[in-house]
């Protein structure tokens, strides 16, 4: 299985329409890959809070249309990163879109853990409430987004739902890059699953991005890591390695659930 992570540069000087078309072109260039991944909120930038409301779009809006066609043109499974979604009956959401090779929407995931504490995304967007997996040829992918990476219980839930590959688009800042790589490897090791973590390059809203998109195998080995700038990271995966790892080192079978709370 060939996976290509498009670490697109997000810059305030480029229009969203231009970046949308450029991203579509980059997706088409990955024809021959099985899975292509874009980062979180690459249209606006994950830290461009003031743009969220103005640039929010319905689920089947401009990004949906452009990415559906790009997936179909390239004949690939496309995780199109996330968009600021405007729900006509509710708040904004940070929503990821996954398209099949015929351009049909296969899954949508609303980010559960919103970053910002008492500002930014945490107050501007609603929280998703559902775990989402999508069946790919030969494997199942679990969906998460950026800040979700810090919450291991979400990934346990995805593994319990059958995920063998964890796809994590992000707009991770450079100042916390060491956490990005550490957590990506930790999620792979503890869940004995592939982790595909795709970030952005460039600087937007004054926040330099970490880049360094990374692919980690179920044993925690790094199969590929991008640099700081815009690039496409392509890695070959063996879906069978997940079951082999889980059989040879069956740590997941030793989970103990429902422990009693400590007595006070």
Automatic annotation (TrEMBL):
Residues 1-239 form the CN hydrolase domain. The keyword Hydrolase applies. It comes from the Bacteria. CDD domains: nitrilase_5. InterPro entries: C-N_Hydrolase (IPR003010), C-N_Hydrolase_sf (IPR036526), UPF0012_CS (IPR001110). Its EC number is 3.5.1.111. It holds the Pfam family CN_hydrolase. GO terms for molecular function: 2-oxoglutaramate amidase activity. PROSITE patterns: CN_HYDROLASE, UPF0012. The keyword Iron-sulfur does not apply. Keywords: Hydrolase. PANTHER family: DEAMINATED GLUTATHIONE AMIDASE (PTHR23088:SF27), NITRILASE-RELATED (PTHR23088). Belongs to the carbon-nitrogen hydrolase superfamily. NIT1/NIT2 family. This is 2-oxoglutaramate amidase. It comes from Streptomyces jeddahensis.
């Amino acid at each position: 299985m060939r996976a290509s992570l498009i670490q697109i540069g997000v810059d305030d000087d480029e229009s969203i329409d231009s970046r949308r078309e450029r991203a579509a072109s980059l997706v088409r260039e990955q024809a021959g890959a099985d899975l292509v991944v874009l980062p979180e909120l690459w249209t606006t930038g994950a830290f461009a809070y003031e743009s969220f409301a103005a640039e929010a779009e319905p689920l089947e809006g401009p990004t949906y249309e452009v990415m559906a066609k790009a997936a179909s043109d390239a004949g690939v499974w496309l995780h199109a990163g996330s968009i600021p979604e405007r729900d006509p009956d509710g708040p904004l959401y940070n929503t990821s879109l996954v398209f099949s090779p015929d351009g049909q929407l296969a899954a949508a995931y609303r980010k559960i853990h919103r970053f910002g504490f008492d500002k930014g995304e945490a107050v501007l967007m609603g929280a998703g409430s559902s775990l989402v997996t999508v069946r790919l040829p030969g494997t199942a992918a679990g969906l998460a987004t950026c800040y979700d990476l810090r919450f291991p219980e979400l990934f346990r839930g995805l593994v319990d739902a059958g995920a063998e590959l964890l796809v994590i688009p992000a707009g991770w800042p450079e100042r916390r890059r060491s956490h990005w790589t550490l957590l990506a490897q930790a999620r792979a090791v503890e869940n004995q699953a592939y982790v595909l973590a795709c970030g952005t390059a460039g600087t937007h809203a004054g926040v330099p991005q970490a880049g360094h998109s990374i692919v980690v195998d179920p044993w925690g080995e790094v199969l590929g890591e991008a640099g700081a700038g815009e690039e496409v990271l392509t890695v070959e995966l063996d879906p069978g390695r997940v079951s082999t790892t889980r059989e040879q080192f069956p740590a997941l079978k030793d989970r103990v659930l429902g422990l009693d709370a400590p007595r006070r």
